[in-house]
Amino acid sequence: MAHILLVEDDSDIMRINQSFLEKEGYDVHCADSVQQAAFLLEECVPDLVLLDVMLPDGDGMDFCAILRQKTQAPVIFLTARDENDDVIKGFRSGGDDYITKPYDLNVLKARIEAQLRRNAKPEAQHPRIELPDLIIDLFSGTAELDGNTCSLPQRELQILYLLASRLGSRISYHEIYEKIYGCDVEDSKNTIRVNISRLKKHLAMDDMSTYEIASTADGEYVLRRVIF
Amino acid sequence: MAHILLVEDDSDIMRINQSFLEKEGYDVHCADSVQQAAFLLEECVPDLVLLDVMLPDGDGMDFCAILRQKTQAPVIFLTARDENDDVIKGFRSGGDDYITKPYDLNVLKARIEAQLRRNAKPEAQHPRIELPDLIIDLFSGTAELDGNTCSLPQRELQILYLLASRLGSRISYHEIYEKIYGCDVEDSKNTIRVNISRLKKHLAMDDMSTYEIASTADGEYVLRRVIF
DNA sequence: AAACTGGATTACAATATTGTAACTTCGGAG
DNA sequence: CTCCGAAGTTACAATATTGTAATCCAGTTT
User: What is the pTM of this model?
Assistant: First the structure.
């Protein structure tokens, strides 16, 4: 599924590479000049770039700089020049690999896969609080209590998140309000009270639930795990 | 500010401890029996418990079990029994410290502080993505672009979060929709389009911004850092 | 030049969110 | 027993959110 930008001025080599890569399942976009490559960049950011060093209208290494403004996609230089100095220059200009012609197509494939693998961004794991029988997911805006998932409005989710992040400890409504609204006001108490009430109802939190929200005499709240 | 539950049946010792601890700035609740202590637990969860082992209506160590159902607050046993077996039994029953009478009040204070310190829950740091000039905070539901903070509706925040978690990589609207709604549908494209449009407007994202949301020809989006 | 295509934006209506205020409960004090 | 007060719940009205559909707009194609 990955998109590869292939920049190569030799039409025979381009054709061979393109058909091979497409056969391997890649989505290949081709350019035979720096200009055309820059143009393609505008409409499709590739996951990887195969770059010939010598192009009719410029140096592939110079193109690297342009490319880097658009993406961190790995660049593999393809060139006949195998002098150490050239290789070094290639890497120094921002390349991630350097393959000298002629090369084996399966080696090319392996190097491409290696680059994509290394470059693969780790899936951003959703920020969540996971307690036994209570999961709070800030990305999806949902909470799961005793296996029952429900979507919560922001305010209720924020309160639950704060309570859960301090399971068993008291938090004053002042602090909750302050954390959510950035400042405290005169009757923050009522607002928090109402939203906690709504939260309980949304979560269907009752005597049978594994957790309870208790309030102390002096305006503080605690989320507690109830053990029967 | 911490709440301490003091359970002690000797009224003299209780009075001395209570006045000392209150002078030190603690909020002290007293009980002279297991029953009363259990009752106080209902209305105020303490941050720490000072527990005499021998009480008129039961053993302090048994009370520990009841206590643990309500809170993970540290328990310090206060007792005249200094046999190794007693000490071991105290810790085994869930105690966090064990002080034998008579004790120095300042030692008591030091031990209390140590317990509260160790038990202090680390502030839950908000889950957020921080890029240069772009911060996305899922807890507060806000994004800050180029120093300009604004609150975003859930859908826009989710999209921005997904894009930012893969800065520079393409994501298809299919994938965005799938990640947000849990399934894909026929015209997910329009929904995502509209919300991205709203997102740009909310963020005041324009030619001058450090980031842009670009779309490729085949229905994919990329968040890119723009370098001038 | 007219028609067309497909993305971007705007309009709109149904729904959801949320602070405030009114109301209900319930335990303790008088 | 009644009254009081505080916590919990419900009602309500002003806003905000959001999917759908209509409109706009810039390139192409005919």
Answer: 0.75
